[in-house]
From TrEMBL:
<comment type="function">
    <text>Catalyzes the phosphorylation of ribose at O-5 in a reaction requiring ATP and magnesium. The resulting D-ribose-5-phosphate can then be used either for sythesis of nucleotides, histidine, and tryptophan, or as a component of the pentose phosphate pathway.</text>
</comment>
<comment type="subunit">
    <text>Homodimer.</text>
</comment>
<keyword id="KW-0460">Magnesium</keyword>
<protein>
    <recommendedName>
        <fullName>Ribokinase</fullName>
        <ecNumber>2.7.1.15</ecNumber>
    </recommendedName>
</protein>
<dbReference type="InterPro" id="IPR002139">
    <property type="entry name" value="Ribo/fructo_kinase"/>
</dbReference>
<dbReference type="GO" id="GO:0005524">
    <property type="term" value="F:ATP binding"/>
</dbReference>
<feature type="binding site">
    <location>
        <position position="253"/>
    </location>
    <ligand>
        <name>K(+)</name>
    </ligand>
</feature>
<dbReference type="GO" id="GO:0019303">
    <property type="term" value="P:D-ribose catabolic process"/>
</dbReference>
<feature type="binding site">
    <location>
        <begin position="256"/>
        <end position="257"/>
    </location>
    <ligand>
        <name>ATP</name>
    </ligand>
</feature>
<dbReference type="GO" id="GO:0005737">
    <property type="term" value="C:cytoplasm"/>
</dbReference>
<feature type="domain" description="Carbohydrate kinase PfkB">
    <location>
        <begin position="7"/>
        <end position="298"/>
    </location>
</feature>
<keyword id="KW-0963">Cytoplasm</keyword>
<keyword id="KW-0119">Carbohydrate metabolism</keyword>
<dbReference type="InterPro" id="IPR011611">
    <property type="entry name" value="PfkB_dom"/>
</dbReference>
<feature type="active site" description="Proton acceptor">
    <location>
        <position position="257"/>
    </location>
</feature>
<dbReference type="GO" id="GO:0004747">
    <property type="term" value="F:ribokinase activity"/>
</dbReference>
<dbReference type="GO" id="GO:0046872">
    <property type="term" value="F:metal ion binding"/>
</dbReference>
Length: 311
C-alpha cells in the first residue's frame, strides 16, 4: 500500500440514528411483543467504521449527510466525542437515516434502516472534496449511499493511487469493472453469495467458491462469517481467520463494522493482510461483549496491543 506521507483515513458513507431493542425473540405475525430494554445509539456502517478507526487512534474524517433534525445533531455530536473529524458532514432537507435493531438473547440481530439523508450525497459534492480524496491514505466505503456515488469515488481513488476498502453492504449490483479497481473487498456470507452467485454459509463453502470471489476484484477479498470467523482470499489462497472466543456474546451490532475499522487500522500501520485480519478479529470480539455499536467498539488500550498480532 502506497503511503506518500498521508496521515488520515477518510470514511465516505452512511450515518444512522440507531434504536436498539433487546428482546428474547422476534414477535410472531400479528403479535405485539414487549421488548426487555431500549438503547439509543449512533450508527450507520460509515459512521461506525469511522468511530472504530478514531477509537484506535487514527485521524479519521467522515464524509456523509444527516438531516437538519435532532437525530442529525446527536450523531454529529457523538462522532466528535469519539474524535472523528465531522467538517465534511453535510446537512440535508431529508430526515436523518434511522436504524431499528432487534437484538436477541443469543446475539442474533434483525435490523431495518431508513436511508433518509444518506441518499442525498452526490458525485458533484465528492468532486468538491477532490483534495480530501487525493490526500487520504485509505478510503473506506459501503453501499448505504448511492451506488453511483460509490463507483465515482472508487474511480477517483484509483486515479490518485489511494488504497480503497469497500464493504459491499448491503449487497447491490455494481459496475464489475469498477469493482475490479477496489484494493480490498469485504463482504459477509450473504453478500458473498450475492456477488458470486452461489450460497456460502461457512468457510468450506467460501473456499470452494474462492476463485469466483477472487475474480470480483484485482485486490484482496475478505469474507466475514460471524461467529465462525473470517476468510482471507489473497495470493496465498483461502486462509481461515479463527474467531476470538469470548465468555458471552451480548449482541453483534457493529461487530462487522468494528472488524472493518480495525482492519483499516492494521493496513494504516503497515500490517500484512493476514495480520490486519487477526487484529480485526480481536476488535470484533470485544465489540460483541457489549450492547450498541459505537459504544461497544474498543480503544487501543482495550486491545492490549503492544505488538503486531501473532500469525
Amino acid at each position: 500500500m502506497r503511503d506518500c506521507g498521508r496521515d488520515y483515513i477518510c470514511v465516505i458513507g452512511s450515518l444512522n440514528y440507531d434504536i436498539i431493542m433487546k428482546q428474547k425473540r422476534m414477535p410472531l405475525l400479528g403479535e405485539t411483543y414487549t421488548a426487555d430494554s431500549i438503547t439509543y445509539s449512533g450508527g450507520g456502517k460509515g459512521a461506525n467504521q469511522a468511530v472504530q478507526c478514531a477509537k484506535l487512534g487514527i485521524d479519521t474524517i467522515m464524509v456523509g449527510k444527516v438531516g437538519r433534525d435532532a437525530f442529525g445533531d446527536a450523531l454529529v455530536d457523538k462522532l466528535k466525542d469519539y474524535g472523528v473529524d465531522c467538517s465534511c458532514i453535510g446537512r440535508s432537507g431529508s430526515p436523518t437515516g434511522v436504524g431499528v435493531v432487534h437484538a436477541l438473547e443469543d446475539g442474533t440481530v434483525y435490523a431495518s434502516i431508513i436511508t433518509g439523508a444518506n441518499f442525498d450525497i452526490t458525485s458533484r459534492e465528492i468532486d468538491g472534496l477532490d483534495e480530501l480524496v487525493r490526500s487520504s491514505r485509505i478510503i473506506i466505503l459501503q453501499l448505504e449511499i448511492p451506488t453511483g456515488v460509490v463507483e465515482h469515488i472508487i474511480r477517483k481513488a484509483k486515479q490518485y493511487h489511494v488504497y480503497t476498502i469497500l464493504n459491499a453492504a448491503p449487497a447491490k449490483e455494481m459496475d464489475r469493472e469498477v469493482l475490479k479497481m477496489v484494493d480490498c473487498l469485504i463482504v459477509n456470507e450473504t453478500e458473498a453469495s450475492f456477488y458470486a452467485g452461489a450460497d456460502m454459509t461457512d468457510g468450506d463453502m467460501v473456499r470452494a467458491h474462492a476463485d469466483r470471489l477472487r475474480q470480483l476484484t484485482d485486490g484482496t477479498v475478505i469474507v466475514t462469517l460471524g461467529s465462525k470467523g473470517s476468510m482471507l482470499l489473497g495470493e496465498e489462497g483461502a486462509v481461515p481467520i479463527d474467531p476470538v472466543k469470548v465468555e458471552r456474546v451480548t449482541e453483534s451490532t457493529g461487530a462487522g463494522d468494528s472488524y472493518i475499522g480495525a482492519f483499516a487500522y492494521g493496513k494504516f500501520k503497515g500490517m500484512t493482510d493476514l495480520q490486519a485480519c487477526c487484529f480485526a478479529a480481536r476488535a470484533a470480539s470485544v465489540t460483541v461483549t457489549k450492547i450498541g455499536a459505537q459504544e461497544a467498539m474498543p480503544c487501543l488500550s482495550e486491545m492490549n496491543e503492544s505488538r503486531l498480532p501473532d500469525v
